Amino acid sequence: MSIFDIIGPVMVGPSSSHTAGAVKLGLVSRQLLGEPVTEAEILLYGSFLNTGNGHGTKQAIAAGLLGMKEDDRRIPDSLAIAENAGMKITFGEAHLRSAHPNTAVLKLKGAVCRALEIQGESIGGGRINIHKIDGLEANFSGEYPTLIVHNVDQPGHIAEVTSMLSHKSVNVAEMQLYRESRGGDAVMVIECDEEIPQEALKWLEHLEGVLKVTYYSPWKEIV
Amino acid sequence: MSYHSLKEICKICKNEDKEFWEVIRADDCCERQVSPDESLQDMNKMYEAMLSADASYDKKKRSASRLSGGDGALFWEYVESGMNLSGSFMGKVIARAVCMAETNACMGRIVAAPTAGSCGVIPAVLISYQEKTGIDNKKCAMALFTAAGIGEVISQKASLSGAAGGCQAEIGSAAAMAAGMTVHLQGGTPQQICDAAAIALKSFLGLTCDPVGGLVEVPCIKRNAAAAEAAVSACDMVMAGIKSAIPADEVIEAMNEIGHDMPEKYKETAQGGLAVTESAVRKTRPRTRI
Ligand code: SF4
What we know:
heterodimer; A: alpha+beta; CATH 3.30.1330.90; 6 helices; 28% helix; binds iron/sulfur cluster
């Protein structure tokens, strides 16, 4: 925590969790998709659903999907801006069980026809947690470049991934591992200090036992 | 972090012959690996954002819930008529606090200080002080370091969030930060800065977070005015020679204990207190949720 979390951030109101955090959810989701969003179905849950209208949560998520940051004065007008830009947005209720009270599920389609479903939580102070991607456990903050590898739970995969990262001089900030059952599906979530090169991601995708590779870059320019 | 309590900050001030704000800045330089000049410039940007938020107030704007908007303009008019009992300086402080909190409620751009709900307290006092004395922006930025240092200690020892500690943690902390900041501006000692923070915070211990409809509007907006006033009066008391009977660090510890013991319904859940009064329920009858 820096003193600029105490005097700051500069943000569009009224709420750091329901507005600033919601912008961040949209923005991180857009970066995850990696291309401009053409269609978005936004499903709200809990306090997002109940108090979202009064907090501008819908405008905030849409603003993030358009690439705006939390201090963008256009946030209140984001729905009209999205419409003009040809982004189709619909809203609904997320039927989840025992999720975080500030949760949104974003079903996105991109210009190049990629599709992604993201379940994100606004956890306070404008910070977020990407809980699931396409229904699979993720849990990362969106502050760092993040690699998510779904693989079969068998020996050697973790070593393969980490040695690839060290080979590319990428420093690991945080790493989490989950698995459904022994020998079943497993997930690695690795937050890094540097970007991971594209060819390294390609190489990972082709490894035997690796089911899916998702990469999040906070800085990639999306046009 | 080179300090974990206000007492430690005072000790560093004495040992290294530094001002309170300089200790906080030195720590920022170390944490973020920036030069003292860059650190001051970054804080200056925060102050400029506060000025721009203050100037952006629009009296015609209403919040999405229709619960708030326009009150700040009413107060300005009253202050300008000269009829208000609070005097010219305090009148402006109150007007600015209400305006800023309304701007936040109406989706304007503000500086969370320490939170969005309490964003009016510090700028209301600081901008009015600048207007009264003519100090430059740089001096205001220095004062913000003092406020930030107090907030930092509170966040370490207790919390700055209504969901975790009730409104005492948001509005109370903002009052404490603004009080210390104002003593700094008035030329008080590090000890006096801490005493003012203590006096201001004591006035808000136990304050619940019970916003109507779960929205950052009622009672939040008017509490910004109350906290700004408390900050100015705490500063004046201290500069008059009054001390706090309980040291600031102990007041913060007390706030932490109270926050822990406070029932969940008073922590931003809108399930208790003002949020469930008859009028609150009537005013926030569910419209469409989607
Ligand atoms: S009542 Fe709650 S939401 Fe309102 S200012 Fe206080 S802590 Fe923030």
